[in-house]
Amino acid sequence: MPVPKKLLALIAPVALLALSACTTGFPTQVARFQAMPAPEGQSFVIQAADPRDRGGLEFSQYADLVRRHMVAQGYREAASPQSATLVVSLGYGVDNGQTRIVSYPSAGFGPHYGYWPYYSRFGGYGPYYHGWHDPFWGYPDIRSYTVYTSYLDLDIRRAADGQSVFEGRAKARSQSDELPRLVPNLVEAIFTGFPGHSGEVVKITVPPPPRAG
């Protein structure tokens, strides 16, 4: 059965939103303060900002992403914490989420009240409850979804005196609270244009991964 044109008009915006969510990437906001030295062979070690993460497999996975970016910038991994000239502190997390409610015209059937003539045994015509309505009368659908805010903190200090040389935070809103999916994007965002201009707050969209095949 062919789909009515009016129904297509309602479905199309939803389909476009779903498509754009898959193709436009991961939007983040990055704030940075920095006095990073130019890479001249300085060595670094990565530590967990939260003591509970130290030695964990999940932290090790995220730390390895940071390590790769630091090496790509021209710094080198220290053989031991004692030999490092820079200490990189890594923290991350996601909140419990906030519920958002949206309303839009219904593309299906739903109940409504109306006055329809029918003959009453008490005499004359009276009100009638009509259980289903025309789907294009504009009765809204109410739906809810949860938005989570995730973050990644990256602080770099000189090992010799503890002086901070980089303080950065990347954060993002999404409908996922899965850190293994979120943290790699946040790491990518904070190293985009690294170390950046001190005091800047920039919006960075991490491109989606290339399609297989």
Q: What report would you give on this structure?
A:
The structure is a single chain. The protein is α+β, with helices and mostly antiparallel strands. It has 2 domains: 5-99 and 152-206, Double Stranded RNA Binding Domain; 102-141, no CATH class. The chain contains 3 helices and 10 strands, in the order αββαβββββββαβ. It has helices at 5-23, 57-73, 179-190; strands at 26-34, 43-48, 76-77, 86-94, 98-105, 114-119, 125-128, 140-158, 164-174, 200-206. The strands form 2 sheets. Strands 1, 2, 3, 4, 5, 8, 9 and 10 form an 8-stranded mixed sheet that branches. α2 (57-73) runs parallel beside α3 (179-190). Residues 1-22 and 109-136 have low confidence and may be disordered.
Order of helices and strands: HEEHEEEEEEEHE
Write down the overall geometry: elongated
Major sheet size, sense and barrel closure:
8 strands, mixed
> Unreliable stretches, pLDDT < 50, 5 or more residues?
1-22, 109-136
Rg calc: 27 Å
Please count the beta strands (DSSP E, at least 2 residues each). Answer: 10
What is the architecture of the largest domain at the second tier of CATH?
2-Layer Sandwich
**Tally of helical segments:** 3
Level-1 CATH class name of the largest domain: Alpha Beta
